[in-house]
Amino acid sequence: MSNTEKLASKLREIVGEANVIEDPEKLKALAVDGVIPKVLVSPGTIDETSKVVAYANAEKLAVIPMGNGSKMALGGIPRKLDILLSTRRLNRYTDYDIANLTVGVECGVTLAEIQAKLAGEGRGYFIPLDPQHSQRATVGGIVATNDSGAKRFLYGACRDFILGMKAVFPNGDIVAAGGKAVKNVAGYDMTKLMIGSMGAVGMICEITFRITPKPDAEATLLFPFDGLKEAAGFLRKLLQSKFYPASLELLSAGMAAKLPATSALKGNFIAAVALDGIEEAVARLKKDLSEMGRQEGATDVVVLTADGHREFWIAYRDIADPLAKTHPNFISLKANFALSKVMEMVGAFETGFKEAGLDGALFCSAGNGILRAVLPLGDDLGAKTAAVVGLIGRLTAESVKNGGNLIVERAPKAIKEKVNVWGQTRSDVVVVRRLKERLDPAGILNPGRYVGGV
Amino acid sequence: MEKEKMIQELAKIVGKEDVMTSEMELQLYGYDASLNRGRPDCIVMPASTEEVSMVVKFARENRIPVVARGAGTNLSGGSSPTQGGIALLFTRMNRILEIDVENQRVVVEPGAITLDIKGAIGKYGYLYHPDPSSEKATTIAGNLGENAGGAHCFKYGVTSNHVLGAEVVLYDGEVIEIGGKSLDNPGFDLPGLLVGSEGTLGMVTKLTLRMMPKTEAVKTMLAIYDTIADGANTVSDIVKAGMIPTTLEMMDNLTIKAVEAAYHVGFPEDAASILLIELDGLKDGMERLTDEVVAICKKNNVREVRVAKNEAEREKIWAGRKGAFGAVGRLRPNYLVNDPTVPRTRLPEALAQVVEIGKKYNLPIANVFHAGDGNLHPLILFDERDKDELDRVHKAAFEIMKLCADMGGTISGEHGIGVEKLKGMPLIFSEKDIAAMRNVKLAFDPEDVYNPGKLLPVEKAA
Ligand SMILES: Cc1cc2nc3c(=O)[nH]c(=O)nc-3n(C[C@H](O)[C@H](O)[C@H](O)COP(=O)(O)OP(=O)(O)OC[C@H]3O[C@@H](n4cnc5c(N)ncnc54)[C@H](O)[C@@H]3O)c2cc1C
Questions:
Q1: Is the pLDDT of residue B459 over 90?
Q2: A186, B432: Cβ pair inside 8 Å?
Q3: CA distance B207 to B72
Q4: What is the DSSP string of A109-173?
Q5: Greater confidence, B2 or B160?
Q6: E strand residue ranges, A22-138
């Protein structure tokens, strides 16, 4: 028996015949940064997951977990990949307690599925997350990458509303952290260690969220501006106010052109503000913010409600998906920065695109200090590689200067080989390495993909 | 190492007058607000990160434990040096370094007093939300150490939601930055992990906190009930109605009487419970929401609802709540307070069982609690000179932890494990869960320099 056959037969013992795939053609399509897995395994329970991981640990085999595969391009190029572990059969609800505002699910459930279910309960509830890939992303993938969206301004991010977790650690231990209590300080807050850890020290298998009642009223206001200074100034004023909208976003013209609701608006920059709240508050905000926007130089105010409002934000979240489909060499960058630096950051990115001769577009969470840029390169990657690598270097330096950093969320392997996808190394990398060494001494989980190359 | 030598070496680092060793001081800094007593070998007051780093290096080389100490108000033994060593006191590092209004962050030293920070940023129209009742005395790093909560957490979260970055001295003296002014820095969420770590992972020498603009309007109400269950059910109904008040705080009759005797804030002494409710947000719709809350109270048989008409009335209501521990503390020589949490809907049941436990052990128990969060605070009253009573107190406390753990809750919502709740850890965590935490401790502090014996139960001999 070859090593791969031996591995596959052992895995079949754990998860059953139908849940191990060794077909080279199928596996080729699942390569991570060109690294082809030896097998794809889909455990049906956390216990089975634990057994698979424990086996891999004993045999020193590299494991990469995968949900629906929407963010497999994130992170460093894997040093090794033996077992691709699909979470799609881990799809149960482990807690469903609307009265206490908690929901527990296994990692393979899509956020979209949970949201649809919660929307139908009583007055309507939701997990206050609106990350990329609205239909495809599984909660495991969202939490492992700490993804978030525009509404984070009002509702916070994973770290603010995840109450508990179950994870399989590299030695196979099923480790529970937190619980369903809203406040919990017993022991270390291991959920925080796991959120955004990309599965570097454990595979997130089950998550308990605190859910939120749906707001009574919602709306979106779109403000086209001619100048960046005015657009950023308006958002800045709003950020410092007592108004607390749900989100404060800024789109470049290039980005606005890609979205149905904004493509017809005339302006070099569009400010998009979502409002969530009770009827009276939303009514007042519509009125006051419209006035404020015009005072600050907006050339128009467009109000979106009902379906228009919903569809706008879905398209906004999912902007990368259609581009990635049509552009084989699609690149997406995420920069973080200190809140007051919107103008500097947007300016630096726009200039950077121009100077590099690349057709980039960006949108920026002015309320969260996060900017995302997309570079839909055509198929002549070779000619553009140097320009792209140079640009990423300059933008990383610019982000660091503005109090943050830059990560490459997605890029062709040829680019990833030449840049630090996790941005400028920080002084805390020493702790990242020590945690990895302690918790995953054999280095079997996602080797090479996380910060510091761990 | 010889004590004299140790003191000399430390004096070289921080200066002679900032190493304290008198008998009185050693006794004083052996305490915190729990029942535990430790005794440091000396007390050291560094003035800078560099001095902290040098003290830590020295301590590590000489295998001396280092126990960080803020105001010493924690309720679980967290800052009591139970294994001796250096009590590292941050009183000299108490500056507010930067109020960065433009970026909505405030950068402070670890010994800064929570309420002082609030006062300083309040001038700019900003709030730092976490508000332990003890905030007048507590240091911000002590809040970080325990992940302190408070009466506004139902809407705004606890300390960990508001600490975004820190400077940390590792066990080997190395200084690192974690998190920062910006969100989502690449790598593990180390600020998230450090908050609540009770001084066992690293010394925090600088903190970056989130500050938020003050809201436009606030409404404070006091609802008075003839039973505890009616109050607790009101809380559940308010949540069910989709409202997110900032505050849902309750107290029982024993607490009400104690507060009234101490502060005369106008609480009716015959009430079985009172519920403090606060809403904030835009002024639009606030009156309607207030009416809805009052209607929910009425549906739950409220005796009376008082809506604060002005800031003075609001402050009076809050003074009663914030001073509750102190007031109850006057009833008997000692109290032990537990802080387990249950799913909110199980509050009435949990409270009823706490009453039973009090009866069983013949101990008065006063209850004041963060009802919105399901976070109980049974204050067990006793006299520690009575050994039999003390023994019953510990038994009752353990039973209360167990009952909450069994209800799907946890043993500590905001006060920490320290040494006091170590034996409760197995009620909610398996050996494997604890082993994973132990690995985190080993990654940060493989030689157990920082606060040994706290937070994690000792490993069972193999
Ligand atoms: C009357 C009263 C009311 C209270 N009310 C509340 C309440 O409403 N909510 C609540 O959550 N708690 C409450 N507490 C508990 C207590 O006030 C909190 O736990 C507080 O956060 C402790 O702060 P401190 O400055 O006293 O820190 P300490 O008690 O001195 O220390 C707490 C922990 O932090 C660690 N630490 C201190 N400084 C550092 C540092 N620089 N680096 C690393 N670790 C450090 C210590 O080692 C220790 O483990 C109350 C206590 C009392 C006595």
A1: no
A2: no
A3: 19
A4: SBHHHHHHHHHTSTT-EE-S---SSTTT-BHHHHHHTT---TTHHHH--HHHHEEEEEEE-TTS-
A5: B160
A6: 39-41, 63-66, 83-86, 93-97, 102-106, 125-126
**All structural domains of chain A with their residue ranges:** 3-86, 93-213, 217-311, 320-416
What DSSP string describes B221-245? EEEEESSHHHHHHHHHHHHHTT---
Mean pLDDT, residues A281-309:
98
Residue-wise pLDDT tens digits, A305-347: 999 999 999 999 999 999 888 888 999 999 999 999 999 999 9
CA A178 to CA A185: how far, in whole Å? 8
Question: For B418-434, how does the pLDDT look when each residue is reduced to its tens digit (9 = 90+)?
Answer: 999 999 999 999 999 99
Rg of chain B over CA atoms, in angstroms? 22
Among B308, B325, B342, which residue terminates a domain? B325
Q: What is the pLDDT of residue A328?
A: 84
Q: A26 alpha carbon to ligand 1 midpoint, in Å?
A: 56
CATH fold for the domain made of A320-416: Alpha-Beta Plaits (3.30.70)
- Across B134-151, average pLDDT: 97
Task: Give the whole-angstrom CA distance, residue A367 versus residue B183.
Answer: 11
Asked whether the CA dihedral A76, A82, A84, A90 is positive or negative, the reply is: negative
B107 within some domain: yes
| Nearest CB to B437 within list A188, A244, A451 | A188
Mutation to probe ligand 1, out of B35, B36, B73, B108 (largest number of atoms < 8 A from CB): B73
Instruction: Assign B313 a pLDDT band (cuts: 50, 70, 90).
Output: very high
Hey, is A436 helix, strand or coil? helix
Do residues B309 and B263 share a domain?
A: yes
Beta bridge partners of B231: none
pTM for the model stands at: 0.97
**Which fold, A93-213?**
3.30.465
Give the containing element (helix H, strand E) for A207. Answer: strand A203-210
CA distance B421 to B414: 12
**Residue B211 amino acid letter:** M
Phi, psi of B412 (to 5 degrees): -150, 125
| Domain assignment of residue B397, given as a range | 332-418
Tokens of A258: 């890609």
Is the separation of the CB atoms in A154 and A275 below 8 Å? no
The stretch A415-420 carries a mean pLDDT of 97
Q: State the CATH architecture for A217-311.
A: 2-Layer Sandwich (3.30)
What is residue A22's DSSP assignment? -
For B196, the closest of A176, A188, A283 (CB atoms) is A188
Rg of chain A over all Cα atoms, to the nearest angstrom: 22
Please state the atom number of ligand 1 nearest to the C-alpha of residue B114: 25
Q: Reply yes or no on whether the pLDDT at A188 is more than 80.
A: yes
Q: Which of A187-191, A340-344, A377-381 has the lowest mean pLDDT?
A: A377-381
| Angle in degrees, CA A320, A325, A326, rounded to 5 | 105
CA neighbor of B77 nearest in space, from B377, B432, B423: B423
Phi-psi category of residue A452: left, alpha or beta, with phi > 0 → left and psi -120 to 50 → alpha: left
Confidence band for B461, pLDDT divided at 50, 70 and 90:
low
CB A272 within 8 A of CB A301: no
User: In chain B, how many domains are there?
Assistant: 4
User: B438 C-alpha to center of ligand 1: Å?
Assistant: 22
d(CA B40, nearest CA chain A) in Å? 24
CA A125 to centroid of chain Cα atoms? 22
Compare all CA atoms of chain B with the CA of A175 and give the residue at the minimum distance: B433
Sign of CA dihedral B114, B116, B119, B123: negative
Probe residue for ligand 1, chosen from B43, B79, B82, B117 as the CB with the greatest number of ligand atoms within 8 Å: B79
Q: In this structure, are B112 and B169 located in the same domain?
A: yes
